[in-house]
Amino acid sequence: MSLMDHLCRVCDERVSNGFRSGQKCEWFNRPGHFTGTFDAIIKITRNEGIRSLWSGLSPTMLSAVPATVFYFTLYDNLHCALREQFGNKSPFAPLLAGSLARASSVTIVSPLELIRTKMQSEKLSYFELTSAISRTIRSDGYSALYRGWTATMLRDIPFSAIYWTCYESFKQQFLYFLNVERINFTYSFLCGSLSGVIASIITLPFDVVKTHQQISLGQLTTKNCNENIPLAKKGVFKIFNELIETKGIKSLFTGLVPRVARVAPACAIMIGSYEHFKKFFTDQNKENALRIE
User: Fold this and answer.
1) Which terminus of the chain is less hemmed in, N or C, by CB atoms within 10 Å?
2) Closest to 152 (Cα-Cα) out of 79, 102, 199
3) How far apart, in Å, are the Cα atoms of 183 and each of 30, 125, 176, 199?
4) Helix axes 37-48, 2-20, angle to 10 degrees
5) Alpha helices in the chain (DSSP H)
6) Cβ neighbourhood burial of 96 (10 Å; 0-12, 13-18, 19+)
7) Which residue ranges make up each domain of the chain?
8) Which contacts qualify for 94-97: CB closer than 8 Å, 24 or more apart?
9) Where are the Solcar repeats (predicted)?
10) Does domain 2-286 sit in CATH 1.25.40.20?
11) What is the largest CA-CA distance in the chain?
């Protein structure tokens, strides 16, 4: 289910990152200013080809599948343990479980996430990407591979806390009104979609800052750029202030439409599939246990 989800949404990520890539370098021919989501899709396709909409797919798949498996497994175990402490209907159980699971997952896959974002923001060959990474490591050390980690944590931990709290709340409401023990795929899909929209809108500013940090990977030391200028090392809140001062508060919500269009179905597919197969295998295990007895 992780594989299917990320194949569907990598195109939207490419468009979203394209919106935010405002820095320029002579060797790379950017498609210009985007006026909207569909304008971005048209210009990116026209300048770079239809395949460019799926640029960054390889590192996305490499990081997404194990990260998703790890994240959901850790969340489920933490949630079960915390419910025993706080009670089944307490909002603190999903909030804490989601936050801890996401923090662990983000830390593990952060370098691959950085590479994926770089590939989606610029049309680079694997050789050029490798060169940019090598120059960055020589200049700033291996810690540079975690560029954007702080912004990612500030985005993903609140996102997971909000998402899981909303999801479990919506789920409990459906269980109560439908008078059932488990909700089916359709209701899980709906709960996941609504929760994803709410969480993605609230945390979008941190996603914008994270993208700005990660697309700078190797950018100031590439061809035809001044090699004497060190890579920018800007903190999260400094980028916040610069964006607000230069482009206004609305710049923190750049790419809102493609982000919501990506996150809502992604969350819906993931949680709907997860709940469906969780129920399926639970029932299978019960049947097998009865046969053994």
Assistant:
1) C
2) 102
3) 47, 46, 10, 22
4) 90
5) 2-20, 37-48, 57-86, 92-121, 126-140, 149-178, 185-214, 236-247, 256-292
6) buried
7) 2-286
8) 94/164, 94/165, 94/167, 94/168, 95/161, 95/164, 95/165, 96/161, 97/164
9) 1-81, 89-173, 183-280
10) no
11) 74
Tokens describing residue 276: 């469906």
Q: Give the separation between CA 166 and CA 94, rounded to whole angstroms.
A: 9
* Residue type (1 letter), 290: L
Residue of 61, 3, 14 lying closest to 262 (CA atoms): 14
Instruction: Please calculate the CA angle 16-105-232 and round it to the nearest 5 degrees.
Output: 55
DSSP codes joined into one string, 220-279: GGSTTS-TTSPPP---HHHHHHHHHHHH-GGGGGTTHHHHHHHHHHHHHHHHHHHHHHHH
Q: Which of 25, 35, 27 lies closest to 216, judged by CA? A: 25
Nearest to 193 by CA among 181, 201, 182: 201
The one-letter amino acid at 15: V
- In degrees, rounded to 5, the angle at the alpha carbon of residue 9 between the alpha carbons of residues 6 and 12 is 145
Q: What predicted TM-score, i.e. pTM, was given to this entire model?
A: 0.69
Question: What 3-state DSSP class applies to 29?
Answer: coil
